[in-house]
């Protein structure tokens, strides 16, 4: 008498689609990533951009990350991923790379904030400080998202 093996559990990832994106961990971080990244973009654009080499990179990272994350969110909402394992790897790769880029942008923005302190322009310093704060928060969100996908 042969023993029958129980059916193997599906190793297929369960990626969210539709409104479940807003309730599923770690995909719930996508909207705060977009929101905080947009604040970095807005706050840096509101300054006088006294350091174009520093803040140009910050603007590039924040704008491109915000737009790509928005496209990623829309693709999850509309189910373009079709529950593919490759999609999970792409998501992890994107969030890992963006976390590194955002860390560099946050450090450069903090440098611009320190430099703007000596310009005696209080509004510019406050805007740069807020942009630095949101840049580090956004970095943390991308890191958290990347690690939680990796360990899921």
Automatic annotation (TrEMBL):
The keyword Membrane is assigned to this record: yes
Membrane topology: Multi-pass membrane protein
Coiled-coil blocks: none
Signal peptide: none
Major localization class: membrane
Segments crossing the lipid bilayer: 27-51, 57-80, 92-110, 130-151
InterPro entries per the UniProt record, alphabetical: MAL (IPR013295), Marvel (IPR008253), MARVEL-CKLF_proteins (IPR050578)
Domain named MARVEL: residues: 21-152
UniProt entry keywords in alphabetical sequence: Membrane, Transmembrane, Transmembrane helix
Keyword Transmembrane: yes
PROSITE patterns assigned to the protein according to its UniProt record, in alphabetical order: MARVEL
Subcellular location per the Swiss-Prot or TrEMBL entry: Membrane
GO biological process, one term: myelination
GO cellular component labels: membrane
A Pfam family assignment: MARVEL
One term of GO molecular function: structural constituent of myelin sheath
PANTHER family according to UniProt: MAL-LIKE PROTEIN (PTHR22776:SF24), MARVEL-CONTAINING POTENTIAL LIPID RAFT-ASSOCIATED PROTEIN (PTHR22776)
Protein name: MALL protein
Organism from which the protein derives: Anhinga rufa (African darter)
């Amino acid at each position: 008498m042969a023993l029958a093996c129980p059916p193997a559990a599906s190793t297929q990832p369960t990626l969210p689609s539709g409104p479940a994106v807003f309730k599923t961990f770690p995909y719930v971080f996508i909207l705060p990533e977009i929101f905080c990244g947009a604040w970095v973009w807005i706050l840096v654009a509101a300054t006088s951009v006294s350091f174009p080499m520093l803040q140009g990179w910050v603007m590039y990272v924040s704008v491109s990350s915000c737009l790509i994350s928005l496209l990623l969110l829309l693709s999850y909402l509309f189910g373009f991923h079709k529950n593919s394992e490759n999609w999970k790897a792409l998501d992890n790769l994107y969030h890992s790379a963006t976390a590194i880029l955002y860390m560099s942008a946050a450090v450069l923005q903090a440098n611009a904030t320190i430099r703007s302190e000596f310009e005696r322009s209080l509004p510019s310093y406050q805007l740069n400080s807020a942009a630095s704060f949101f840049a580090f928060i956004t970095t943390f969100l991308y890191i958290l998202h990347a690690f939680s996908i990796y360990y899921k």
